[in-house]
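User: My collaborator and I are trying to settle a disagreement about how two of our proteins should look. Neither of us wants to argue from intuition anymore, so we agreed to look at predicted structures for both before our next call. Could you fold the first one, then the second, and keep them clearly separated?

Assistant: That sounds like a sensible way to settle it. I'll keep them separate. The first protein:
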Amino acid sequence: MFHALYTAASGMTAQQVNLDNIANNLANSSTAGFQSRRVQFSDLLYQNDVMPGAAATQQTTVASGLQIGLGTRPGNTEIVQTQGDLTSTGNPLDFAIQGTGFFQILMPNGQIGYTRSGSFQTDAQGNLVTANGNALQPSINIPAAATNITVGSDGTVSVTLPGQIQAQQVGTIQLATFANPGGLNSIGNNIYLATTASGDPVVGAAGGSEGLGTIQQGMLEQSNVNVVDEFVNMILAQRSYESNSRVIKAADEMLQQLNQLAQ
């Protein structure tokens, strides 16, 4: 019964973490480029009163043993890699990735960050930057006098200048992908950092041989959070929490009866 108390408590703690994750998903349901996370659970150690395969007699062994589990814990939060809906904005500096890949962003500390949010603007020098001023990598400069900006599905950026008929290419947006995108480290502001778990980035042109997606100009990828699924998960988490709390109550009542017998 003492084990039941701690085991059920571990289940309640795990569901608290699950609910925290669901709350974060719902809070970011309108965040452009946000990728939801899903909590994965794992069971804890087992108390082996009788080991499976232990000798029962000189000729026989125990078929299944007697193992009592000691609860659960959150194992990891998996990034859901599904594509979010693409919404037209009409802004020529809004880009969406149709398919696999991340935009590369130069962080203030010199690291390269990765994001699915393609909302860009120009800084005082004409460089494409995020809302926080982090420059797109490789750097692309838009002339101040440009009258038209065109971005092809392969990431080629062209501008039209006053008095010119032919568009002038000013750079190419390159995308990055990873062997294990779920191993990326989320640091906020829709930015991920590479880790040993994600592997090194594979950088290339959009729509190229690396399996990278294409770039859609004038569009943004919305959050891939499915609000209906999150509400269902919230109900399941709540019911699981209630079930574990009832186990604690039942174990407490049984201990109370034992105490009464001892009096």
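The second protein, kept apart from the first:
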Amino acid sequence: MSRTVHCSRYKQDLPGLEKPPLPGPSGEKIYNEVSQRAWDEWQELQTMLINEKHLSLIDPDARSYLSDQRRRFFNNEPVDRAEGFVPSGDG
């Protein structure tokens, strides 16, 4: 049985994550407030940011940057995009 959360990104009740995606308070907050759909979209954006901006996850500044972008994404605030990146369309 899936659990439902009131998603902070979509402002509606949607299926939630099966378990916290991160350790600690940040993971618990995401688990309680973010839908699976929003988390999957964040994962795609995060991958694009890491690749296009050549981020190293061993760099504390890069991890801090991604944490800030994640917070902004889930709160519907502007987030960075790769320059020149055009998402694929449906057709």
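Some points you might bring to the call about the second protein. The radius of gyration is 14 Å. The chain has three helices and two strands.
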